[in-house]
Amino acid sequence: SDHMENICGYLMKYTNLVTGWQYRFFVLNNDAGLLEYFVNEQSRHLKPRGTLQLAGAVISPSDEDSHTFTVNAASGEQYKLRATDAKERQHWVSRLQICTQHHTEAIGKNNPPLKSRSFSLASQGSASSPGVQRRPSQNAVSFFNVGHHRLSTGKRVPIMQPDHLVDVREMMSQAEGQQRDLIRSIECLPVSGHLTSLDQDLLMLKATSMATMNCLNDCFHILQLQHASQQKGSLPAGTTINWLEPKISLANHFKNGAAQNFPAEINKPASVREEQSVAEPCQLTREPEEINPDEELEDICDDKEDDLGAVEEQRSVILHLLSQLKLGMDLTRVVLPTFILEKRSLLEMYADFMSHPDLFIAITNGTTPEERMIRFVEYYLTSFHEGRKGAIAKKPYNPIIGETFHCSWRMPKSDVATDAGSNSSAHSASESVTLPKDLEGQKELDYYTVKFVAEQVSHHPPVSGFYAECAERKMCVNAHVWTKSKFLGMSIGVTMVGEGLLSLLEYGEEYTFSLPCAYARSILTVPWVELGGKVNINCAKTGYSASINFHTKPFYGGKLHRVTGEVKQNMTNTVVCRVQGEWNSVLEFTYSNGETKYVDLTKLSVTRKRVRPLEKQGPFESRRLWQHVTESLRDGDIDKATEHKRALEERQRNEERLRAETETPWCTKYFLKEGDGWVYHKPLWKTVSAVQTHQTDAN
Q1: Stated pTM of the model
Q2: Where is the composition biased (Low complexity) (predicted)?
């Protein structure tokens, strides 16, 4: 209570996408347990513009920056606020948390738990019953009525008995069944007419009823934990507490908003039974596997994602999903509907960024540090266009932990661009480093080989590691990426947290780089992809750096997909190259000597990657792992694709649960944790360094 003080001051409050952030005067009323705000301090004597009850609220500092935090009220209302600095945020957060805890505990003391509850649905029946065909005059709330019975005033039960938990579970099962009936009733309404299944109020009712059941399940879990903690003191040593599991998993009740009725296990396709089989990954071989590029064949798969049919047909599902999301909500654990998926894994998408291996290899042809930095920037900006599989914004599969993807590219040496006068110097430099013995036989080949491997190294948070190398040119790139997705209203934003490192071993240069954010815009109409944010490329040895800005389209006017950037010599602060244009169309490079170069990305030749046939791939390689989902999507069978996808995700959850119970850490296959990042277990710089050391010792 010493810290219970009424505080006030200006904070920025997020209003909406159009208005954005606005300064408002906030007052914390500790006595009433209220957070109020006014337009300004002068209007404090007037009625507040907004008020939040803090009892039961959650105060959360944001991970966006050190200034932002959110106040989530028990009513579901949320304030997103921003202080002037980290110290002021901490002051507000700590005072709000103290006030919230005080009033939440007060409510708990003054309001004993209810003894029982009874649920009744106003209308239960089939889709053809009169109750389902709702009259226009009926209120939507009449579909779902909840009645309460008060406790007799003379009795109070200090500890809930196990049979009471069973009763609660039974009542919740009834409520879940009634909620399913509600969903069916709404979805059986016609798609046109006075009252349709796409009615905004009914969509909101579907979402809120689902949220209510989720909340009840969370509360029930809290009761289980409370009951266990109260009983622990009276239990003999060694007693195991068995949690009362829900009879039906609420998360699996619905597929795209509809009730699930799966056939018995015996009737499921063999592929689904295979996906659902729980196999502890560490029982499989986790030893790194050397992939022979000669076993890989040129990829003939060409899955363009320009089909809008499924998106248009499932618009009601998108509306239903949107009605459950809140602005700024983290979508990492949100299961999105299957029809918006691309026919490839995220790991393969990273490989498609390497679809111009000629530009990648040509980086080493630069005769000066300045030229090599500019070549890397050119390659970097041309990589994103081919990473997309069409104009429609769709989402690749979320990789399963332990999933891997392998491929390679063969690039004829005659197709790798070299500048006049750079051949001899590049060649002599390459001969200054001796290749490992297992690569010496490739020196006479008329093509270069670029190898690629990616692995999902973590599930929560979702982190992918990928590595590519061209051993003959003594160059490799290692990167790790953590994808963080958030709901932004009518779009979805994905932040690519992580760092990449390009190593040019013949020059002893290392280039660090980051990745831009990605946005799926207009998700209710024709979804499209936009890149945004600032990325930096740095080479500490040479002192050259590049700053690249991916510009998002302004609310009014402006161009799409615009990118600008400059390459600079840090020591002299001299700009040696400027770039502008569109990252998926034409780029213009202007050099310090006045020359200008145009690159039309739509006309750049794409080298097809080489992939092993499915029958030669391991069970955790992307294409084999997701083959049944991909086949179902190609056939347009969304239901079957959803079933296969759910089986894979359920297997991952079961394996994760088993590892937690046995306290078995996950062991990666190709990447090792180093500090905050992940590094390939056998990078080229280690191989070349070992060979050079051996040669030095021999001499």
Answers
A1: 0.57
A2: 116-129
